[in-house]
Structure formats: structure tokens, C-alpha cells
Design goal:
The complex is a heterodimer of chains A (about 425) and B (about 700).
Chain A lengths: L4 E8 L3 E2 L9 H14 L10 E5 L10 H8 L7 E5 L5 H15 L4 E9 L5 E2 L2 H12 L3 H9 L9 E2 H5 L9 H11 L4 H21 L9 E2 L5 E2 L11 H5 L21 E11 H7 L5 E10 L8 H12 L9 E4 L4 H11 L2 H6 L21 H4 L3 H18 L4 E8 L3 E9 L1
Parallel strand pairs in A: 3-4, 3-5, 12-13
Antiparallel strand pairs in A: 1-10, 1-11, 2-10, 5-10, 6-7, 8-9, 11-14, 13-14
Helix pairs in contact in A: 1-2, 3-15, 7-12
Chain B lengths: L2 H6 L20 E6 L2 E6 L11 H11 L7 E6 L4 E3 L4 H4 L4 H19 L5 E5 L2 E3 L1 H7 L3 E5 L3 E3 L13 H8 L2 H10 L3 E2 H6 L5 E3 L4 H10 L9 H5 L3 H18 L7 H12 L3 H17 L1 H18 L9 E5 L3 H12 L3 E5 L3 H17 L4 H10 E3 L11 E4 L5 H11 L8 E4 L19 E6 L8 E6 L5 H13 L3 E6 L6 H17 L4 H11 L5 H8 L1 H14 L9 H8 L30 H20 L6 H12 L8 H8 L2 H12 L9 H4 L1
Parallel strand pairs in B: 2-3, 3-5, 4-6, 5-7, 6-8, 7-10, 11-12, 11-14, 12-13, 14-15, 15-16, 17-18
Antiparallel strand pairs in B: 1-2, 8-9, 16-17
Helix pairs in contact in B: 2-4, 4-13, 5-6, 6-7, 6-13, 11-12, 12-13, 14-26, 15-16, 20-22, 20-23, 20-25, 21-25, 22-23, 25-27, 25-28
Classes of the chains: A alpha+beta (about 425), B alpha/beta (about 700).
């Protein structure tokens, strides 16, 4: 039997731009920062939560199974099971999907599902040769052995590789994520100016949402030990313009590429939680659902065009529920790259693509920009990889409610050639 | 978690010791025999804390006769709280020199006997192992520490030095400079430092104690090494040099004329550091002499006063979650301290910046208190900045620490109606407003009271618990228990202008203002007060408190009291208007860019005329408070002044000082003739002093 699953609340930290050195919070610190007030505003005690699932890609050494560390630090008690899930950029949505399925199947009543990522804490990694040398040195017993090993030392052993850079490179195709966006831009004829214009609009929308108070219950301030209080996503540039973005050089494929730092998502730290509840829990605790999770889908494709993941994951949802392009009031399509988002839109408008790949008779249709990423996205607020999937579901639920929308889809592309999507209905 | 799982939680303490039978004929010792090893468990009856009393030592002496062919003797404690908190101070109160000498010599004889036993002797120490407790452990051959052990000699805080062999045994066992440092500061040494100094031969969790004891008996514990420095210190010239340095250092924090003990200890080591027998004899003599000194008598009284206040904090508060409104300095300190003591805390402020600063302040406090990384993290996790006031509805106690404006507080209180939990308590940290003007606005006056913390909360142990006519007794009892859970000392006071502590302290600063007005040099005033033994001169204190607050206190006392108080000079109000409000503004009575207030004073700075004018009005106000029933008795009043303001502890508080002096009412009358009616002796002098 399939039971209804509700999103009853959720909150996230401000997304904090990585500024070249470790930021003030670890992944679990971030999860605690937004988790504490989220739990404090519930009418039930934290013990009522059955399970904690957290998405996190770059787990740091001190926080193995960050879900469990976060649950204990949030005071959920020794007996609360907690596990971490990882599907790269989809991890924060995978946690919700896991929770959704447990509650739907009736084994759990209330689950805290989140995402946490501190990309600024991504480690510096020693080269493989250097690690081998350290091992040899440790094994060398006699002074002669030691001297011999010492002679093998090479200066470049100590120039570390930035772990994050490796993480953002596809291990199968060796393409950097930005390069996969270049591939799509080329395939769907996305030009630089259109990509830049999309990015400018992302900044304007986030700035507007921040000013209007639309994010007030969703983004909760975080407080660092240094005394700093972080109130807002700090990567936003309200004064962004085509002219300014036009000056930036392509970062991934210079000099002719179209993807720049300005029209890509930002590297940030941030965490987000969504609280899911069954009908029973909603009644028992007198909760007010924001939205109901109707369905979810994961899809896979060639890693070098991973940016089309949203198209492949969302379309089956539309097809299963017989929804046309106008039936979906709001979309949260994670802005990994402006060119990638625009390519997804283009694919849905492409007769051939929709026929050959999606099984439609003709194009799915044009998704109106007014329904898409209405309060900005990863280009303006950043993309803490394990968190973004969680944030877009949470924000979709809040945005549906704020705009009296009925239905919405949150979807993301996932490095490695995957896509995830979730269909919500306002409650 | 089920009870069964709880019992599996590692190393909660010496479990099962209470099943061990009492040793024959002993009240304070339990005894177990296993595999030829006799274990004596110290377990003083009817208390949670062991102290080394005459009975403990006498019974130990008897038990040493019954070891038979034991292959080893282990001494440990059956109390969870620790090994032993020190010697039995009560046994030393009010006894003459001869009786004291007898008592000490008997104690030495027992410990010497223990030290001289043929069989290996092993002390297992955990938790607080202080004073006489540590001396007992030092008389054993080897010591095994359990993780978390705190060892130290706090005697100096009572105006004494170790008297049960601690001086010669510790300086012989570990680096003598470290040993002297520990005894001179009275600070406890924690955990790994105890091992590093060589105070224990092994530091293990409870689960490895038996294995460590076996290793000690086999002789497998690593031998101690005596360092080069320790060797050199056996030579008199080296000690001379070190002792001179120690005396200079001691003079900075504890001048000899007020605090003789550190100097007696330094002399002891200087003269006899190379000869244990001579040092032991001298220790006994010196200890008996110190015990008779006025300083020790006053400080021992302070020790008892602390106990009296602490006993007012019994029971459980039922308060797990504290919500603090207002993240100013006081609110932030209260929040940080409550979280440190295990409470769940929400700290509310309308602005984010002070909440951020509060987190930083908390992190600093935890660092200063040497919290481990995870303990500091957990305390910070427990303290949640709460700009939306989510904690109001969850808290068992709401502490309002908002700016001192009645209308603001009333507005906050009205926002709490129908929001707070039904049995939750509201407390105000106000220092200058009367509760009688506030309690009507509280959601329920029966569950409303004053909880007046002192700044900085992390260092000042006192909390005034202020009642009013509408408060329920249960509210006060729960708040007193809460203060105890915070490891602070509650003193119950009545709603009165300035409550107790500020009412008594105010004349100290106000009189200083008048003396400045008369042209007296501010540094001379401060030095005279420091020389008297006050922790801070009145001018510096006024700057520290804030001249704006001083002005407000002066005015509210003027309005609220039916006795005359010092008039405030006009220039003070002008200074406040100009923004020169004291230390926080960088300029007040001192200009902190150019001047540094004196921090120490010498005997030359003593000045009876200044002291009489600064100190005696405090004594007079103290009598007024007793007469008005602001506080129960003179002991509690003295305790409140010492623990709330640092009032010269070796003088025992304003009432003790007045009694010892004897001439205070007469002197006040003379001052009245010279300076006006504010010095008129209170009508209560005959009754209360």
C-alpha cells in the first residue's frame, strides 16, 4: 500500500561562497546550524523523528557518516538511526527520495532528510607518487634504506592536487563538468550572450527574493565561532550585468569556449534539511504540510552530456502522470551551468530529440522562464553539491505555496551522467 | 536508552564499591581482599565527598595493623566525585595552637607509617584529589590516576599551605619548581598534566585500573626519572635564586602583609628544600602558625560561607532548557555559562550581530576553561542563537537580560503571555529596576523573580535571587537549585533599591566621586583601596561598571532609600552626556588611550582616612540591609559581597571587618560631623554588629 508523504517543513543555511581557504563550518556544522532552529520550531520533541538521512559528497575525515554525527549533535538521541547517501550532485535529493520511499511504504513516520557540503573544506590531495614515497619511507628500516628512499624524493611530491578539482572531473571521460556544459552548448547552439543573460537574471531573481523576505523561513542565519553572523547567500551579485559578465574569459575551454565563471554555478558551502512526515505523523503532531511528494525518478545517460540529466529524469514523471508542459506550474532545475539549463530547455523544444529520446510524437514544449527557477539558482546562490538537490525540493515546496501553484518538478543534472527529479503537489 | 544499556556505558566511576563491606571497626573505610592484595576504599559516611579527617587517619592507622601477609596495599575512594576533596576543615576551625599541633603530628605519624610500609603501596586516584587527599596519595609508593583526575593543593586559598606532608613530599616527587607553583597558586592540575608532571605513574581509564595495579605490584610501571633541574634544586644557592623570584611573583597577586601563607611556604622550601626531615618538622610548625593568623581564620570562614550559600541550592530545578532574551554582555555570558553547565540554551536578540558576538564570547570562555574540543563543540551546539525567539515556547526558564528600561521589559513580558510553557519561570537579570514595578507585567507573578548575575558570569560565583511579594516559594526554590546546577552560589535577597550587593557597593564608588570632586588624586584613591585589599579601586570600578550606570544607580538609590546618599557631582552627568562613560567608551574617569589604572598597591599606599571614607559607608549600608531584612543574616551578606564583588576576602566581608574593627559607629559619627549626614550610623548597629 502506498501512503501519502508530506513535506512539513525545511530550512537551510545561507550558501557561503568558498573563498580560497576552509570556511567557518564543516558539513556537519552547517547541518547543525540550520537543523537546530528547524527542530526548535516544531511542535514535537526531536525524539519523534525516526530516521536521519543526509546527502554529502565530500565527507571530511573527522565526520565519517555525517548523518549520524549531525543527528547526535542535534540531540536526536543515541537510538536514532542515521545514514549518509551519495549520488554526487543528487545526494541532497537522494536523501529525500530515500525518506519518501520509507514513509510511503509505511516503515517510518517522520524522517529528517538533508544535504550538507563544505566545498571550501575539500582536502588538498598528495600525488599518488608522493603517497607511495611516504609509505616506502615509513617501511625503510636501516639507515641505508632510508637514504635510498630519500633519494627518490621529487620536489613535485609536495605540490598538492586540489581534491575538489579532481572531484569535478568525470573519471570515465576525463571531462571536467564545465567541459560537459561546453559539449551541450555546442550541440544545442547556446551562444555566450544567451548564457550570460540567463546568469544575470538568476542574480536579479535571488536579490529580489532576498529583499522581499520570500526566503525568511527557508534560509536561517548561521553563526560562526569567530563571531560572524551569516544571514544571506553571499554569492549574489545584484549589480550583475551582461557587460560585466561579457568581460570574463572562458575557464574550461579557452579561448573559444562559452562557459565562464560568471555563467556557471558557484563553489559554496551550505546545508539544507527537509522534514518529511506520514499522514499519521501529521495528525499526531498537528503539523501543516507544505507539499506532498507525488513521485520521483532517476535516470542515466552518457557522462559527457550529463547536463541533460533533468530532461531524462523529469520526462518520465510528466508521462506517468499525464502532464503537459503547462500542467507544471513551477520548475526548479538546478543551475549547474547556464548553458546546461538552456540546453535542457532546448531539448524539450526539439521535435527530433523528444521523438527519438523521450518517446513523444513532437516537442514537449517551451518551459516559460516565469515558471523556472523563480527565485534564482545555483548560478547566483551557489552549488554545494551534496546540498543542492535538497534545496531545490525545499524551495519548490515553498515557492508553490507562496505562488498558489499546484504542481512542480525539482530536478538536477548529476556529474557522472545521471539525473534526478521529484514531482510535488501543493498540500 | 534502557537502564541495562546505561550500565554498559564505559567508566562511569568506581561501580560496585558500595557492595564492599566496611572494614572491621572502621566507619570511613571499606576493605576488599583479593589475590593477596588488600584494597582499602575510603568512603566517609553520610556524604558524597571524602575528606581526610582525624577519624579517617586514625582508622587507617588501625587498619595498617591488620595487613598480615598481604603482598600489596591499594588505597582508593568509593565515591564517584573523587578521591578526597581535602582535609576536614571543620576539624581545624576554632582550635588552639597546641590542639592543632597534636592533630597534625598524629596525622603525620600515620602517613609516615604508611610511607614506611614494606609491602608495595599504591594509591588509585580519580576526580578531585585535593589537599589532604593528595597528601594521603603522596605517602604511597606509586600512584595510578584515572582519566579526568584533578590533583592540587588549594590550601593557599585558605591562607594556609599543605600541612600533612605535602610540602616535602611533593617537592621531592616532582620538579620542585612545578611543585611550588602548584602549591602557591592552589590551582588543580588536570588529567594528562598530572601524568606529565610525574604526580601519577600511570593514567588509565577505570577499565584498566586492575591491570595497572598488577603492573605496579610486579614492578612493571616505568620508573620515575628525576630531572637535572630537580637535582640542582637540592642545592641551596639554586633555591635561593628561585625563591627570590617566587616572592616577587607572589607579591603581585598576594601581598605579604595580607597573605602570609605563600611566603611561609617559600621560606620553608628555601630553608629546608634539601632535607626532607627538617622540612617536615618545619612544615608542621609553620602550618600551626598560619592556622592562627587572622587571614587564615577569615578565609576559613569564607570557605564555610561558600558552603552555606551552596547549601541553599539543594534539589533539582527541573530546568533543562533556558531561554535568554537579550544578547548583551550579561545575556551572552549567562547563555554561554548555562550551556557549559549542560543546559540547552536559546539566546534571543532582535539583531544578529550581538548573537554572533555572543557565540564568539562563548567560544572564548570555553577556551579559557580548557574545555576539550568536543566539550566546547557540544556546549556551543547546546547554545543556539535564536533571532526568532523560538525558544520562548520551549524553555523551562526564560531569563530576561534586556536593557534597563521598564517599558521595554514590560513589552517583552507581554509578548511571553500565552507563549511560555505553563510551569515555566520568568526571571529578570535587572540590576537597577525594582521588581515591584515589574511583576505586574509578568505572565504570572508567582512564577517571576529576579536572578541577578554578576559580570563576568564565568568568573563571579554569586547570583542574587530576588523575591517580591507575589512570588511563589516553589519558584524561588527551583531558581536556587538552578543556580546550584550552574555551579554558582545563590543568595536570597528581598526586592530593595540596588538589591543587596549594589546597595552595599554603591557608596564605595559614590564617595570616591565626591573625593575626586574635592580634588583628591584618582590614582591615590584607587591605590589606597587596593592596599586595603579590594580587588579594584573605586574609580577604576566606576569606569568598569560604566559612569552612565553609576549615575543611574545613584539617582535610583537617592529616590528609593529613606536614608541620605552621596550627592552626585554635576560633572559626572556632563561626562555621561559627552559620551565619556568609562572603559567601554575608552574614556571615563581615566583616559584609556593615555592612562592605565593601577592594578596593585604597596603598603605605602595604605591611607586610613581614605579607607574610612570608602569602606565604612559600605559597612553602614550593610547594617541597613540587615535591618531592612534584605538578606537573612550577616554571614550571607559577607558571603554575597565577597563572591559577588571580590570584597577583600581576607578581611571576611564588611560585617566581619566591622566587628573585628569594633570602632565603626564611632568613626561614622566623626565622619558625619566632618562630611555630612550620609555618614550617620544606621540605627541597626546596636542590633546587628
Amino acid at each position: 500500500m502506498s501512503r501519502p508523504v508530506y513535506i512539513v517543513d525545511g530550512a537551510r543555511t545561507p550558501f557561503l561562497k568558498a573563498r580560497g581557504k576552509p570556511g567557518p563550518f564543516t558539513p556537519v556544522d552547517l547541518a547543525v546550524q540550520c537543523g537546530r532552529p528547524l527542530l526548535m520550531r516544531q511542535p514535537f520533541a526531536p525524539e519523534a523523528i525516526d530516521l536521519v538521512v543526509l546527502g554529502c559528497v565530500n565527507v571530511i575525515q573527522d565526520e565519517m557518516n555525517p548523518a549520524r554525527v549531525a543527528a547526535l549533535r542535534l540531540g536526536l538521541g543515541d537510538e536514532t538511526v542515521a545514514f549518509t547517501v551519495q549520488i554526487n550532485c543528487g545526494s541532497g535529493m537522494q536523501s529525500i527520495d530515500t525518506a519518501y520511499r520509507y514513509i510511503r511504504d509505511g516503515s517510518h513516520q517522520m524522517i529528517l532528510a538533508g544535504g550538507a557540503e563544505a566545498l571550501s573544506h575539500a582536502p588538498l590531495v598528495y600525488r599518488h607518487e608522493a603517497t607511495e614515497w611516504f609509505g616506502d619511507m615509513a617501511r625503510a628500516r636501516s639507515p641505508v634504506d632510508k637514504l635510498q628512499t630519500l633519494a627518490d624524493l621529487r620536489p613535485n611530491f609536495f605540490s598538492p592536487v586540489i581534491g575538489l578539482e579532481r572531484g569535478l572531473t568525470d573519471p570515465i571521460t576525463k571531462l571536467n563538468m564545465g567541459q560537459t556544459a561546453e559539449v551541450l552548448a555546442h550541440r544545442f547552439n547556446i551562444d555566450r550572450a544567451t548564457a550570460d543573460a540567463y546568469a544575470v537574471e538568476s542574480h536579479k531573481r535571488l536579490a529580489r527574493a532576498q529583499e522581499s523576505g520570500a526566503l525568511k523561513t527557508e534560509v536561517l542565519p548561521a553563526f560562526a565561532r569567530s563571531g560572524e553572523a551569516y544571514e544571506r547567500d553571499d554569492g549574489v551579485r545584484p549589480d550583475s550585468s551582461l557587460e560585466k559578465l561579457g568581460k570574463l574569459k572562458p575557464v574550461f575551454e579557452p579561448p573559444y569556449g562559452k562557459v565562464t565563471a560568471g555563467n556557471s554555478s558557484q563553489i559554496t558551502d551550505g546545508a539544507s534539511w527537509v522534514l518529511l512526515a506520514s499522514e499519521t505523523a501529521v495528525e499526531a503532531h498537528g503539523l501543516t504540510p507544505i507539499a506532498r511528494i507525488v513521485d520521483s525518478e532517476w535516470a542515466a545517460l552518457d557522462p559527457s552530456i550529463m547536463g541533460l540529466g533533468p530532461v531524462l529524469a523529469s520526462t518520465p514523471l510528466a508521462q506517468r502522470h499525464d502532464l503537459g508542459v503547462t500542467d507544471i506550474d513551477l520548475w526548479e532545475l538546478n543551475e549547474a551551468f547556464a548553458a546546461q539549463v538552456l540546453s535542457c530547455l532546448a531539448a524539450w523544444q526539439d521535435d527530433d530529440f523528444c521523438r527519438e529520446v523521450l518517446g513523444y510524437d513532437a516537442a514537449f514544449g517551451r518551459i516559460d522562464r516565469d515558471r523556472l527557477n523563480v527565485d534564482g539558482g545555483a548560478i547566483s546562490l551557489g552549488h554545494p553539491v551534496g546540498t543542492s538537490g535538497n534545496r531545490i525540493v525545499l524551495h519548490l515546496a515553498n515557492a508553490l505555496k507562496a505562488r498558489n501553484g499546484r504542481r512542480g518538478i525539482a530536478t538536477e543534472c548529476i556529474g557522472g551522467g545521471l539525473g534526478g527529479a521529484m514531482l510535488l503537489e501543493a498540500a | 536508552m534502557s537502564d541495562f544499556l546505561n550500565t554498559l556505558t564505559p567508566d562511569a566511576g568506581p561501580d560496585g564499591a558500595s557492595d564492599v563491606p566496611r572494614a572491621d571497626g572502621a566507619s570511613a573505610w571499606r576493605r576488599s581482599d583479593a589475590k593477596g592484595v588488600v584494597t582499602l576504599w575510603l568512603d566517609c559516611p553520610d556524604t558524597g565527598t571524602n575528606v581526610i579527617s582525624e577519624t579517617v587517619l586514625r582508622e587507617l592507622d588501625g587498619l595498617l595493623d591488620t595487613l598480615g601477609g598481604a603482598k600489596a596495599l591499594v588505597i582508593r575512594s568509593a565515591k564517584r566525585s573523587g578521591f578526597a576533596a581535602g582535609a576536614d576543615i571543620d576539624g581545624f576551625a576554632d582550635i588552639g595552637r597546641d590542639a592543632a599541633l597534636d592533630l597534625i603530628r598524629q596525622g603525620h605519624a600515620v602517613l609516615d607509617r604508611l610511607a614506611g610500609l614494606e609491602v608495595p603501596t599504591i594509591a588509585v586516584i580519580h576526580g578531585n584529589t585535593l589537599g589532604g587527599g593528595l597528601e594521603l596519595a603522596l605517602a604511597c609508593d606509586r600512584r595510578i590516576g584515572i582519566d579526568g583526575v584533578k590533583a592540587g593543593f588549594p590550601e593557599v586559598q585558605l591562607g594556609l599551605h599543605p600541612g600533612l606532608g605535602g610540602t616535602f613530599r611533593l617537592t621531592r616527587l616532582i620538579d620542585p619548581i612545578e611543585a611550588m607553583q602548584a602549591m602557591l597558586t592552589g590551582k588543580s592540575i588536570h588529567d594528562r598534566k598530572v601524568k606529565k608532571l610525574g604526580l601519577v605513574d600511570a593514567l588509565v581509564p577505570e577499565r584498566h585500573v586492575d591491570a595497572a595495579i598488577e603492573a605496579a605490584i610486579r614492578g612493571d610501571l616505568p620508573a620515575r626519572e628525576t630531572g637535572l633541574k630537580a637535582g640542582a634544586m637540592r642545592l641551596s644557592p639554586a633555591r635561593s635564586l628561585a625563591a627570590t623570584r617566587m616572592r616577587q611573583e607572589a607579591e603581585k597577586s598576594a601581598p605579604r602583609r595580607h597573605y602570609p601563607a605563600p611566603y611561609a611556604l617559600i621560606d620553608l622550601w628555601h630553608d629546608h628544600g634539601g632535607d626532607a626531615d627538617a622540612m617536615q618538622k618545619a612544615e608542621i610548625e609553620s602550618f600551626a602558625t598560619l592556622l592562627e593568623s587572622a587571614t587564615a581564620q577569615a578565609l576559613i570562614r569564607v570557605f564555610f560561607l561558600r558552603r552555606t550559600l551552596k547549601s541553599g541550592a539543594s534539589g533539582a530545578s527541573g530546568i533543562g532548557h533556558v531561554h535568554v532574551i537579550g544578547a548583551g554582555a550579561m545575556g551572552a555570558e549567562i547563555a554561554a555559562w548555562s550551556a557549559l553547565r549542560g543546559k540547552r540554551v536559546t539566546l534571543e536578540d532582535v539583531k544578529l550581530a550581538p548573537l554572533g558576538k555572543a557565540v564568539k564570547r562563548a567560544a572564548k570562555i570555553y577556551e579559557k576553561r580548557h574545555l576539550s574540543g568536543i566539550d566546547a563543540r557540544d556546549a556551543l551546539d547546546r547554545m543556539m542563537p535564536d533571532p526568532d525567539g523560538l525558544g520562548r515556547a520551549r524553555a523551562d526558564l526564560v531569563i530576561e537580560a534586556a536593557p534597563e528600561r521598564a517599558e521595554l521589559k514590560e513589552k517583552i513580558y507581554s509578548g511571553l503571555v500565552n507563549t511560555m510553557k505553563p510551569d515555566a519561570i520568568l526571571a529578570t537579570n535587572t540590576s537597577s529596576l525594582r521588581l515591584e514595578t515589574l511583576f505586574d507585567a509578568a505572565p504570572d507573578p508567582a512564577r517571576f523573580a529576579g536572578l541577578h548575575f554578576f559580570n563576568p558570569v564565568s568568573r563571579m560565583p554569586l547570583v542574587e535571587l530576588v523575591s517580591h511579594e507575589g512570588v511563589a516559594a516553589e519558584t524561588l526554590d527551583r531558581l536556587a537549585a538552578f543556580v546550584g546546577e550552574l555551579d554558582r552560589l545563590p543568595v536570597r535577597v528581598r526586592d530593595y533599591p540596588g538589591f543587596l550587593v549594589n546597595r552595599v557597593l554603591a557608596p564605595y564608588m559614590l564617595e570616591a566621586m565626591l573625593m575626586l570632586d574635592e580634588g583628591m588624586d584618582k590614582e591615590r584613591l584607587d591605590r589606597a583601596a587596593l592596599a586595603f585589599g579590594m580587588p579594584m579601586g573605586p574609580v577604576t570600578l566606576a569606569d568598569q561598571v560604566g559612569l552612565d550606570i553609576c549615575l543611574e544607580v545613584a539617582r535610583s538609590l537617592g529616590r528609593g532609600l529613606d536614608r541620605p546618599v552621596a550627592d552626585v557631582p554635576d560633572w559626572l552627568a556632563r561626562k555621561v552626556e559627552d559620551g565619556e562613560t568609562g572603559r567601554k567608551a575608552g574614556k571615563g574617569l581615566y583616559d584609556y588611550d593615555k592612562e592605565a589604572p593601577p592594578e596593585t598597591a604597596s603598603g605605602d599606599d595604605e591611607d586610613a582616612r581614605i579607607i574610612d571614607r570608602l569602606i565604612l559607608p559600605m559597612c553602614n549600608a550593610a547594617v541597613e540591609c540587615l535591618r531592612e531584612g534584605v538578606v537573612d543574616d550577616a554571614d550571607r551578606l559577607d558571603a554575597a559581597m565577597i563572591f559577588g564583588t571580590g570584597w577583600a576576602p581576607f578581611r571576611g566581608g564588611p560585617m566581619h571587618y566591622a566587628r573585628v574593627r569594633g570602632d565603626v559607629p564611632d568613626t561614622l559619627r566623626r565622619l558625619e560631623e566632618q562630611h555630612g549626614p550620609r555618614f550617620a550610623p544606621d540605627p541597626g548597629w546596636d542590633r546587628f554588629a
